[in-house]
Amino acid sequence: MNGPRHILIVEDDQQLREQVYFALKQEYEVAQAGSLDAALAQLTAHCGADVVLLDLQLSSNGTVDEGFAVLREVKRQVSDTVVIVMTGDPHHETRLRAIEEGAYDCFTKPFDIRDVKLVIARSLERLDLERENRRLRSEVIRTSSFQKLIGCSPAMTRVFDMIRRVADSPATVLLQGESGTGKELAARAIHYQSARRDEPFVPVHCSALPETLIETELFGHEKGAFTGAVAAREGRFEMAHRGTLFLDEVGTLNLNVQTKLLRVLEERQFERVGGRKTIHVDVRLVAATNEDLETLVSSGRFRDDLFFRLNVLPIRLPPLRERADDIPLLASGFVHSYCERAKLPRKKIAPEAMQLMMSHAWKGNVRELENVIQRAILMADGDTLLPEHLPAQVRGSDVPGGPGQVVIPPDGLKMDEEIARFERELLESALAQAGGVKTKAAKLLGLTKEQMKYLCRKYGVERKLSPEG
User: Which fold has domain 154-318?
Assistant: First the structure.
């Protein structure tokens, strides 16, 4: 964040207040207040502060009422101001009450100013992330259409700008990017930024559908069109009428479906499978691919005329390795949302773990990052995600595969321990990907229910799983 950071010290002990002031003034703009009234006047004069160091015992009788009055007023005026409490009250209940009423941390006097400075620095890092996240969300015009598609890097800023530019155009958009870069989120953002926002958004994941079903899935079928067609059924184009149809992995469509798709784009009409009635539709098409469509055209696997129809407004979604500056924002967002969904206390990410994540290549992009965060939360007993909670490939300690590529230390290793370590990491990764549900994780690993239960008991993860597990 640009500009000086403002800190207000609220402490009736003048000597202590000035000691803290001189310790902080080299790094921050610091104001002082020695009473309830002076504190409120300072807050009004400076429109709040980034951090308030607050003594709870401001009154002469030693009660904490005035201190808590300041705390409540700070949170009322500027809810994201960080309040760090300083108190001589030895009672644990007072510190708990301060945290419950919104304090970020609490120090008991006497304290080491170095500890206070460290907590201030960490609290400002978190404050910056929260403010940046709100800024990104508040940028969205008319709707909250960007949702999880967040970032403040130059690469993502260009994506957001392109989305705004193309949203109201009727032309087809082609989203290009590796798997896990957020192509569907971008497609949804385009839809909800457009005039079609109140009409349906219909996604179709082409690669997930058998080739024999893709045509009827897109265009529907009439009763009796084929064995099992016991009733007429509308396709995704009809479902998306007046709205947006999103075709993900469009490069996997066979040539017959490509031909029919080209006609819809040119004429805005088609017939259901087994039908004769021409159906007219008003659909805005957004397509996505992680393949090079021009290469597919050259090899004869994709129609060149369809490619030109799709490639009217291309947008490239950058891989995560090209926008590493967004990783802290994304990771913190995933921690918050996953802890909230799992009803777990909010956890934080240790700087060492964050540095490892920012250095990782992320072949699976944002989707891989989300899975890693879920795994780390599942494995962490405390309130902090540490490097040891990250999978080996993120820590940079994975063993390369292939004959002759395993590096054995000069002092040797214990094979059973290495196998157990690898087995545990596979288990933890599968559980994280399955959201802690053991039956789903077992399928990912090709295990039976009994084998999964045994491994969970063996590695002590049984107690950490959600009830659905």
Answer: Rossmann fold (3.40.50)
